[in-house]
């Protein structure tokens, strides 16, 4: 336990200092941290899932607070919570199925299992369905009952098992943890391989002699383009360099190394060149539930230019980038300002920055935001590891990955007890 | 002389007479407090004021700035000291231009040396030659050090004199002494026909000597003018401006000497641009020539054979831009420098300006245009018609060769193209009766007038208009380093308006940093950001002010690359976009995209990162044929992103651009 706490603290500091680059790395590390957390978490006999959920939530809350802009952290925390719930549910249903089979033979032994044994199977099935389904208006409205319904079978099951002292109960608790860790491993696997899965779809979207524009650097985009290249498609790529970090240079270098026809342009030339471009393919920082994209700075400009010239604007995003939240004022709230030194060299304007205009505020401000928000109407297509989707479909896709209860990862006083 | 006068001049012959003296006269008279020491400065001033008040009876009355389309001198501008101050303080400093133009007198000195070397005694020439050297030097540094130019500028440098220059007036007295000796020599040479020459020579230096001859010439000119004015009155009622100029020419002839008659005919014959015979022909000529397409192999070959600058083709040319010249940058400079003393056909000033373009020392539409005109002015000063040739033809050819040289150094901007057209049309319209020195003097005064009226005064008017669009609490965004916008911002700041400026910048030129430094130095509250963040910052912006390299007649704003992006984002955020552009940069061409016509900058500039280590290794890839670096210089902003164009004729919507091009185009050439 203490070493998990140390891990958590280390990760927290990394997040706070923005040491981790890219949402994919963040997502993977978060998942690994949560995995070790879960594996080390001592599970009580009663309400195992609840205990796991609480532990994950406690850590998740800290992680999210450490870097609220890095939405991937929150996404992964929610994904893990969802996994726990699902595994627990499937265990319960399995147990229930076994129960129903054996119900005929030894009804008395397990009669204590539920207060309402007749209802239980149907209730569990309904709960299972409800978690798999999107949070419909009904479930949202019945949030309290629903939230109670999902963990309750397990907790009641746990209770029942707590009462009985049979060996298979401890094995079952171990099984839950085992299953959860298995699922988290799968999640990590998914995160690591999302590039390949997205890249597989490249040939379906890139045709011969296509002209593609991208801005900045994204590993997903790189893999996507290279996958198309490997399939013997020949096309040309315009890379905008992507101020202030100019990572487009790195991307251009990689593309050239892989034999793609690459033209490096300045960001300011995007509007000039977009009229000769067939498709804009960019990576994203996060995809919001409304289909809006939090993307590297400059992409809103590119998206507007693409819209003007009716050029498809395609966003590649791994499923770990899908965020179940709806953005409010994302340009400001989901953004962070980086150091002015990326724009002006240190000391270059120090003489101007020092003196104020009497009010004490300096004359010169330097604004260097990290992200841009691209509204859903500017996006034509999302390509995730599960295929291509409309912006308007994102909410539904997101419902597959998250349960509605976890949207707010804050322990309510009630659940904390 | 007549065809050079604009068709629509003021009726009063006396005024028009003054108009003739316009550029030098204005430059003297404008700051009366400075020139007041000399007695002779008062007549031009008194002559000026009526001309300033009289309104031209023709065409669309421009809203406020009625004087600009008139060839007569503008009303004494420094009427409001406030405005003058503001402009002096601008960092694209019109006073710089004026110092650039101010060598007028000293260049005359040098020209006179050239002309009168035989007659004037050697010691006079010896006295003068340092002055000449100074004049040259001043041109070299015209943009660098006002102090230096101030020293060499004669009293003619008035108008926007800074304190430095004011102090330089007594200094320049030194050279004036030598000038005083000269005009007799000139008068002998030209047979007393050179009114303007003598007027160009600082009137303050020698008032009495000229009085008598001046009166005579005035009488003569007045007679001619009266005839012409009458002709013009008829002409202005005619169907179109073109026919107006035709009718204007004909009756004027009757009043003229026979020599002028055949000269007029020959002018019409030799003209390339302004053939006034038939309207259709004229209209056809209005259509701009198709530009050189660099994917046309045979023509490129031809051009190469003529070229002075040896360009090596860029290794990795961008396929899309094959029609544009794509050359290696940086290789020509040492080559050209080594050729400096061998290039006899090229005038050294032109050569120098070309090199400055090539190295990027001079950039910005106005600065480039003024530098080029200054160089041509010097070249005209030193020009002498070879035997067996006529000035108008030979000089046109000469200018053309200069232009093609400059074009090789860096493709001409549209504003420069317009200025060249102006100059050529002036040359073509020179009456044959003029002696060489007269013709040169008139061309020089034309150039001066173009610079002062079309560029410096136009900027002042734009500033005056644009400032009305700034309110307290505004957040203004600008992109790059547009000179007119900068002057406007500084002026508004001096007026005490409370506003904030956001300077948006982009690689590789990072011109915004220069603007930022100047603005912050003046105490403006600034925010600096890069172009990608423009949609982040646009939330707080209330107005966007942009500059333009040119405005095309479909309303497209052709400007520094990135302008279109800024305008597009502003449009998306419902922020008004105001484009400040002098009317001489308008062009009748149309363009829909930024591909067909553009300028490619140095591709290496994109790969290079000053002070950034991690990107250095991109250079090793520049040899790979898969990687192309594209450094566009301009882009075309669609007119629907532009809310308003602020020009010297007032504030107009982009749809009115063709009107301005059509209605005012002719004035540019017929001044």
TrEMBL record, chain A:
Intracellular or extracellular location(s): Cytoplasm, Cytosol
GO cellular component: cytosol; eukaryotic translation initiation factor 2B complex
UniProt lineage: Eukaryota, Viridiplantae, Streptophyta, Embryophyta, Tracheophyta
Skewed-composition ranges (Basic and acidic residues): 160-171
Family: Belongs to the eIF-2B alpha/beta/delta subunits family.
Quaternary structure and partners: Component of the translation initiation factor 2B (eIF2B) complex which is a heterodecamer of two sets of five different subunits: alpha, beta, gamma, delta and epsilon. Subunits alpha, beta and delta comprise a regulatory subcomplex and subunits epsilon and gamma comprise a catalytic subcomplex. Within the complex, the hexameric regulatory complex resides at the center, with the two heterodimeric catalytic subcomplexes bound on opposite sides.
Keywords, ordered alphabetically: Cytoplasm, Initiation factor, Protein biosynthesis
Source organism of this protein record: Ziziphus jujuba (Chinese jujube)
Span list, region Disordered: 149-175
InterPro entries in alphabetical order: eIF2B_beta_subunit, IF-2B-related, IF_2B-like_C, NagB/RpiA_transferase-like
One Pfam assignment: IF-2B
Principal location listed in the UniProt entry: cytoplasm
The protein's name: Translation initiation factor eIF2B subunit beta
GO molecular-function term, one example from the UniProt record: guanyl-nucleotide exchange factor activity
Automatic annotation (TrEMBL), chain B:
SUPFAM superfamilies with a match to the protein in the record: NagB/RpiA/CoA transferase-like
Record's keyword terms, sorted: Cytoplasm, Initiation factor, Protein biosynthesis
InterPro entries named among the record's database cross-references: IF-2B-related (IPR000649), IF_2B-like_C (IPR042529), NagB/RpiA_transferase-like (IPR037171)
Cytoplasm is among the record's keywords: yes
UniProt biased composition (Basic and acidic residues): 1-15, 207-220, 270-301
Residues annotated as signal peptide: none
Comp. bias (Low complexity): 27-51, 221-233, 239-261
Compartment annotation: Cytoplasm, Cytosol
Keyword Secreted: no
GO molecular function: translation initiation factor activity
Superkingdom, taxonomy of origin: Eukaryota
Region (Disordered): 1-88, 185-309
GO cellular component, one term: cytosol
Family per similarity comment: Belongs to the eIF-2B alpha/beta/delta subunits family.
Subunit structure: Component of the translation initiation factor 2B (eIF2B) complex which is a heterodecamer of two sets of five different subunits: alpha, beta, gamma, delta and epsilon. Subunits alpha, beta and delta comprise a regulatory subcomplex and subunits epsilon and gamma comprise a catalytic subcomplex. Within the complex, the hexameric regulatory complex resides at the center, with the two heterodimeric catalytic subcomplexes bound on opposite sides.
Protein name from the UniProt record: Translation initiation factor eIF2B subunit delta
Organism listed in the record: Ziziphus jujuba
Organism lineage: Eukaryota, Viridiplantae, Streptophyta, Embryophyta, Tracheophyta
Gene: LOC107416570
